Amino acid sequence: MIDLHCHILPAIDDGAKNKEISLKMLAEQKRQGVKAITFTPHFNFNRIDVDRFVEVRQRSYESLMSDPQVSEMGIKFKLGCEVYFSTKLNETDLDPLCFEDSNYILIEFPMDQRPYGLKHTIVDILNRGYQPILAHVERYPYFTEDPEQLYNLIEKGCVAQINAGAVLQSDKAALRYIKWGMAQLICTDSHNVKNREPNLKEALRFVKKKYGEEYVDWFEKNARDVFKGRYVDEPMLKKPKKILGFWI
Ligand SMILES: [Fe+2]
Fold first, then answer.
1. 8 A C-beta contact, residue 154 and residue 131
2. What residues sit around ligand 1, an ion, with C-beta below 5 angstroms?
3. Left, alpha or beta for 170 (phi > 0: left; psi -120 to 50: alpha)?
4. Ligand 1 centroid vs 243 CA: distance in angstroms?
């Protein structure tokens, strides 16, 4: 198992407050059988510039790696981040924000309303050769109410990620995206060990029970491909249809 979205690095965002919590989160990931992790602290253009963010992230990473318990765990690590959507993405060198050794860039959107310039900005990023991973797509009402919008972005080359927690809560949107083949990655988006804890194993167990082992294999293969910087297989997309006012 590989986790490509989590807030484990210490004291950098609203995730692990300190190294002690980071270590607890890593120990839990290890216990569940996670073999590789991409660290994705929040990055927001309104709060910090890219160079400074990279410096702060490096410091946080080194402080965690300096603990001997970490190397004993035998987990592979890469650096990434979770970028809060902004039209500034169009005018920024995105290499430092991509997952290490890849052109994948994890992007989250505002929850309340569809941001101005979403489609143009994402298409521009794709045209520049980057591959946006759309974070926790089950959370955005403007996609849930009109899933064709998300379908079109995935068809253009975006990768859609859903949260393990949403799967475990049988979140309607998350399960529909799995059913339609629109969710390509399941990640923890874990922030701590209390209420947003690492939970990949349980989520994949849930998927196996509800949809079958081939879905779990597919999610695991996609995560491996992203971690290694390879292309993800074509999604198993079924275009959502609206019948009598309901998306099916
Ligand atoms: Fe996140």
1. no
2. 82, 189
3. left
4. 33
Domain ranges of the chain: 2-247
The CATH H-level (homologous superfamily) assignment of domain 2-247 is: Metal-dependent hydrolases (3.20.20.140)
Q: What is the dihedral of CA 6, 9, 13, 18, to 10 degrees?
A: 130
Give the distance (Å) from ligand 1 centre to CA of residue 81: 9
List for the chain the helix, strand, coil content (%; round to 5): 45, 15, 40
Q: From the CA of 135, how far away is ligand 1's center (Å)?
A: 7
- Ligand 1 center–CA 209 separation, angstroms: 26
- State residue 33 phi and psi, 5-degree precision: 100, 20
Ligand 1 centroid – CA 155 distance (Å): 23
Parallel, antiparallel or unpaired: strands 42-43 and 2-3: unpaired
Q: What is the mean pLDDT of each run of 10 residues along the chain (248 residues)?
A: 98 97 97 98 97 98 97 97 97 97 97 94 97 98 93 95 97 94 96 94 97 94 97 77 78
Measured in Å, residue 82 CA sits from the centre of ligand 1 at 6
